[in-house]
Amino acid sequence: xxxxxxxxVTVVIPxxxxxxxxxxxxxxxxxxxxxxxEILVVDDGSRDRTFDLARDYGLSDAxxxxxxxxxxxxxRARNHGVREARGLYIAPVDADDVWHPNKxxxxxEAVLKFPGGNGVAYNWYAAIDENGIIFGHxxxxxxxxxxxxxxxxxxxxxxxxxxxxxxxxxxxxxxYDAGLRDSGAEGCEDLKLYLALAETLPFALIPDFLTGxxxxxxxxxxxxxxxxxxxxxxxxxxxxxxxxxxxxxxxSQFNTACWYFKKAFHDGDHAQxxxxxPMMARKYPSRLIxxxxxxxxxxxxxxxxxxxxxVLGKPPTQPKIRFTAAIPQVGAAFxxxxxxxxxxxxxISSRVAENE
Length: 356
Fold this sequence. Notes:
Strand content: 15-25%
CATH class of the largest domain: Alpha Beta
Distance between the termini: 18 Å
Shape: globular
Helix content: 40-55%
Number of helices: 13
Low-confidence stretches: 345-356
Organism: Rhizobium vallis
CATH architecture of the largest domain: Alpha-Beta Complex
Strand order of the largest sheet: 3-2-1-4-8
Keywords: Transferase
Domain Glycosyltransferase 2-like: 10-144
Number of domains: 2
GO molecular function, one term: hexosyltransferase activity
Largest sheet: 5 strands, mixed
Mean pLDDT: 88
Radius of gyration: 21 Å
Protein name: Glycosyltransferase family 2 protein
CATH superfamily of the largest domain: Spore Coat Polysaccharide Biosynthesis Protein SpsA, Chain A
């Protein structure tokens, strides 16, 4: 990428009581192969050493600037960073998530192929635990271009640490909706913004698992009941604007509820299950019956196919792979995915001089 086509990218890191993970997140940002970055850490009224750690980290990377606000939630923290940003593009990352070193470079190359560079880029993610160990990954969907309707049916972006977005378009859409938190339904602010952007902008896919999305007990995404409330509030006005998509939206809400129920069951989170089970039985009685029958039929069908192939001596069917990215290996560290890459070289000060 030539120097004339190297726009400044602002990384916005909302951080609340993030002393355990913030430095790891900052390192993954500092080590990006695309170095023309402004890195804004927005301390959201933390009560631990978050602010001090961010300030100290800035002593070794002058691209880091630390902002602070009274505790107002992740949406207000992100909006604060977007308002203060000098970059043409915004790349948000939560203070417990991490990036592959090539994430921003590959996303920017894709976005700049759009007319005027006016579009959004996203990638897939690996799910990591408290220790950065992979235990799953997002479904590798292939949606590009106009993704509004597919995104209504399934939040395949899946988190707030993945996209690269034009700052002007974020501001045009009103930023992240802090009103969801005020309504006691915090959680889907990122999805709401992605949908608003997708109504008018094309999206580019980087077909690789470039985000390490951390799941920890007690983080926002683990509160299933609140996330579903947030999801319903986000989808209600969209269903009013697009009545022909109402059935798709209802199916999406049901599938999302099922996903959270399965996650709570797998995690042994009985408190979430006690909230989700009666809510789903009350809201989706007929869908639950149909879903159960379909799942049973699919299980019987798969078992029948396996038995038939075993009898006929045919090998198991291999899944079709339409991309070249390595599938994240469960039990491996996310950092292992880029262990062989060369480290970022050159003094920070020389990179900063070009950025300003």
